[in-house]
Amino acid sequence: MSPHAPRRELRSWIERHLDPLEDRPADAHFRSDFDLDPHYAPPAHQTVKPAAVLVGLIERDAGYSVLLTRRSDTLRKHTGQIALPGGRRDPGESPWQTALREAHEEVGLHPDFVSLAGLSTPYRTGTGYLVTPVVGFIQEGFTLTPNPDEVADIFETPFGFLMDPTNHEEHEREMPTGERRRFYAMTHEDRYIWGATAGMLRALYDRLYGAAVA
Question: Which domain holds residue 154?
Answer without folding.
Answer: 7-20+46-159
